[in-house]
Write a structure and sequence with these properties.
Blueprint lengths: L1 H60 L2 H14 L3 E6 L4 E3 L14 H8 L4 E7 L2 E14 L2 E11 L1 H35 L1 H15 L14 H63 L6 H33 L7 E3 L1 H18 L3 E5 L7 E3 L1 H17 L6 E9 L2 E8 L33 H12 L2 E7 L3 E9 L5
Helix pairs in contact: 1-2, 1-4, 5-6, 6-7, 7-10, 8-9, 9-10
Amino acid sequence: MKRNLFSKLFLTYLLLILLAIGIVSSLFYVFFNNYYYGIREQQLLTQGKEISKVVSTNIKNKDFAQIDETIKVYNKINVSRMWIVNKEGNIISGPSKIDNPDNECPESEEIRRALNGEIVINRGNIRYSADPVLSVALPIYVEGNIGGAVFVCNPLSDINNSISQALKIVILAGVIAVIVLASVSFFISRNITKPIKEITEISLEMAKGNFTQRVKFTSNDEIGKLAETFNYMTVKLDKTLRDLEQEKDKMIEMERMQREFVANASHELRTPLTSVRGYIEAILDGVINKKEQEKKYLRIVLKETLRLHKLVNSLLDLSRMEAGHVKINKRQLSINEVIEKAVNRLKPLAEENDLSLELEKSADLPKVIGDEDLIEQVIINYVTNAVRFTPKSGRILVKSDISDGKVNVHVIDTGIGISPEELPNVWKRFYKINDARPLSKEGSGLGLSLVKELMELLGGRAWAESFPGKGSIFSFSLPVKERQ
C-alpha cells in the first residue's frame, strides 16, 4: 500500500511540477517580453521627445554644431543610438561610424512617416545593424511646423539576455522543486497511513457513542489538516448532541411555562368574570332590590370589567412585542417633560388613595432617544404599582438624574417593600408579591413584565431596589442623544 501510494503521489506531483514549470516559463517569457519591450519603447519615446525639444531651437537657429554635441553626448552615455535628420530627410547628426553617402537616414520609410507627423515604433533589423533592434522615429516641431525628425534604435540583445537568464533561474528552481518533491513524497507516504488508521478506529468509536478520543498529529500538511478537522468535527458533534439535549430540556421547560401561562391567564380572567356574572345574576334575579345596592354592585361590575380590559390589553401588548409588531417612534425627547406629563396624569389616582405624589427634576438633563408614549407607559406602570403597595398617607417621589452617560428615572415609594427573595421575581409574568396582602390583589402581575420588554425595545434597562417595611425604588435608564 505504501509503495503504490508513494508511486501515485510521486508521479502526480512530478507531472504537476513539470507542467507548472512549462506553463510558468511560457507565461514568464510572454510577460517579461512584453513588459521589457514596453518599458524600453516608453524610454525611447521619452528620450526622443526630450531631445526633439532640445534640438528644436538649434534647428531653428541652424546651430548644427550644438545639435551634433547634444547627440554625441547622448550616444556616449546610452546603449541606444540616435540620429537627427532635417525636414528634407538628410542626416544632420548621428553616430560618426555610419557611412551614408546618399544622405539617407537609417530606415528611410520610418523617417518619411515621422516627417509626415507620425510616431513610428518598429522591432526588427535595420541596414546599419546586424542584430535586431527596437527603433523609434518621431517628428521635431519648430514653431508648430515639422522641422526634422529623431530616429532612435536600441539593440534587443540586452533585453533577450535578461529574459534568458530569468528563464534559466525558473528552470533551475523547477529542478530543485522536483528533488524536494521526491523527498516530501517519501515522507508523506511513510506517515500517511498512521493518522488515517487512527481516524478509522475513532470513527468506529464515534458510531458507538464515544466522542472522547482524538487523532494525534504533528504535521501541518494536508493529512495534519484532515486530522485537525476530524478532531474539530468530533468536538462539534459532541457539542451538538449536548446542545440538542439542552434544547430538548428547554422545550420541555417552555411547554411547562406555556401551560403555567395559560393556567395563570385563565385564573386571572376567571376571577373577575365570575364576580361580574354573580353580580349581574343577582341584579337580574331581583335579589337586590334597593337602587343604592344595585348601583353599588354595578360599580363593582364596572370595576371588574375595567380590570378585565386592562388584563386583555396587557396580554395583547406582550403578544405584539413578542411578535415584533410594536411600532416604535424613536426621537429626541426631554425626559423631564415626559415625567411631568405622566405625574400630572396620575395625581388624581394618588390623591384618591390619600397619597402624596411628588416630582423632583434634575436640571440641564441631556435629551434622550426614545418613544414618548412607551416611556410614559413605563412611568405609569411604576407609579400605579407604587400606589397599590403604599399605605395611606404615604409618599411617592418621581425623580430624574444622569450617571454613566445615561439618564435615569426613579420611582421611590414608602410602601411595604419587597423581600430580597421575591425581588428578582417581580419581572415575571403573573407574579404577585403576596396574594394574601390586600394591597396586591388588584394587579394582574403583567405590568412589570411589560416594563422590562419595553425597556429592551428602547435600548434601556429596568431594575429595582427594595427595603422591606420601608419602601421600594423602581428605576429605568435611557440612552442619551450624542452631542454633535
